[in-house]
Specification:
34% of the residues lie in helices and 18% in strands. It is an alpha/beta fold. The protein folds into 2 domains: 72 residues, DNA polymerase, domain 1, CATH 1.10.150.530; 278 residues, Aldolase class I (TIM Barrel), CATH 3.20.20. It has a 10-stranded mixed β-sheet, with helices on both faces. Strands 5-6 form a two-stranded antiparallel sheet. The longest helix is centred in the middle third of the chain and has 15 residues. It is elongated, with a radius of gyration of 21 Å. It starts with 22 loop residues before the first helix and ends in an 8-residue tail after the last helix. Bound molecules: S-adenosyl-L-homocysteine. The site of S-adenosyl-L-homocysteine (SAH) has 18 residues, from strand 8 and strand 10.
Length: 374
């Protein structure tokens, strides 16, 4: 555990922060504060390339202007960068680094940096908590507090870069929350990561358990906002049929698997991109050969990739981890049925790897920095 760096924090409702805004908007902000437009480009460099946390620390800005900004409350005119505070850091033996970040309104969220040869993947949250209540997921146990704003998503990537002293190469929306309940902020954050931090859309993955009628909206909004939809869409399927799926994912009651797969086809038609499917393997429940065969039938004719995720145990549930033999048999069965398949390696198990676990474990100790429960 390391010391948390100091950061800007304000308790009331602040204006729109500068993080998340592009160079032109920052130029306009500079001009609106009586500064030359090029100050906006300096701000951009300091906020994104240097990762500065406080406007007062941008030493290239005129001293009088910095003093002026320091003197007034940040919420007055959106004069704040919008970085979060680090509440806790947990580093696994394999280098996987999980951060608990605090928002300006006292909520907390998880973000994880996962190093592998030549890459650093940041697993970002799109919401504080999650309303989807998937039975195997720790985040779902506490319900939803609120969706994250654009800057709070981008901030997670900057926080991991700062702590791990390495440029993130990939971003996956697989932390807390359901991204399809926060489409605009997710797309705006992707835009910012690509335009302002220089990432490639193809290195970004958006993962969803499925929200009725939102996949075609995501595709259309992505084309409208980003000009193209080249990020990967990953759909958490987790079962080959509706009966088993709704047992594991209560919200699936309102979204039959056939309708979900039809929406995936529409997504492919609109974006021209393949869809990946995630399939959590729960020992004895959905990891048998019969499930692999049913899954392959369900995905026949679908240009897709299946990512198998062995279950990470959470304290609230009695699910079993699948045996290594079951995982391998499932993988081989899909492969034999011509389904492209991979198995996700478990990373950072000793750092509460399952989504939402760190936050839940620390809730007791970090009060009152964490939100109260109703
Ligand atoms: N709401 C989105 C993204 C967040 S969860 C979604 O459901 O896709 C990201 C992935 O982690 C999902 O595939 C989810 O099913 C999986 N996951 C959640 N809890 C898990 C656990 N205990 N073990 C393994 N995978 C888990």
């Amino acid at each position: 555990m390391a010391a948390a760096p100091a950061a800007e924090a304000c308790s009331s409702n602040p204006g729109r922060p500068l993080l998340g805004q592009g160079v032109q908007a920052l130029e306009r902000w500079a001009v609106s504060h009586g500064q030359a437009a090029f100050r906006g480009r300096q701000l951009h460099d300091w906020i994104y390339a240097k990762g500065v946390r406080r406007l007062a620390d941008i030493s290239v800005l005129p001293k009088a202007f910095r003093q002026e900004l320091e003197a007034q409350p940040p919420e007055a005119a959106g004069d704040w960068i919008g970085r979060s505070r680090e509440l806790h850091r947990s580093i696994a033996r394999d280098g996987t680094t999980k951060l608990l970040l605090g928002t300006h309104d006292g909520l907390s969220l998880e973000t994880v940096g996962i190093p592998a040869e030549g890459r650093l993947t940041v697993c970002v949250s799109s919401q504080v908590g999650c309303p989807m209540a998937c039975r195997f997921c720790a985040t779902g146990k506490g319900g939803l507090q609120r969706s994250l704003a654009t800057h709070e998503i981008v901030d997670q990537v900057l926080a991991v870069r700062e702590v791990m002293d390495q440029r993130p190469s990939h971003v996956v929306f697989m932390g807390m929350g359901e991204p399809l309940l926060n489409i605009e902020a997710v797309l705006e954050a992707i835009d910012c990561l690509c335009t302002d931090l220089g990432m490639a859309q193809r290195q970004i993955t958006v993962s969803t358990v499925g929200v009725p009628h939102t996949l075609p909206t995501l595709a259309e909004r992505a084309l409208a906002r980003l000009g193209r939809a080249q990020f990967t869409l990953a759909v958490s399927l987790h079962a080959p049929d509706q009966r088993l799926r709704q047992e594991l994912i209560p919200t699936a009651h309102a979204y039959p698997i056939e309708a979900l797969l039809e929406d995936c086809r529409r997504y492919v038609a609109i974006t021209g991109r393949r869809v990946s499917f995630e399939y959590i393997l729960l020992g004895g429940l959905n990891d048998q050969p019969v499930h692999a065969r049913a899954l392959a039938r369900q995905l026949r004719g679908f240009q897709s990739h299946v990512n198998l995720i062995p279950y990470n145990p959470i304290v609230e549930e009695e699910f079993q981890r699948p045996t290594p033999q079951a995982v391998e048999a499932f993988r081989r069965s899909l492969q034999e049925q011509h389904v492209a398949v991979s198995v996700r390696a478990s990373r950072g198990l000793d750092a509460d790897a399952a989504c939402g676990q760190l936050r839940r474990r620390l809730e007791a100790t970090l009060e009152p920095a964490l939100p109260s429960r109703s």
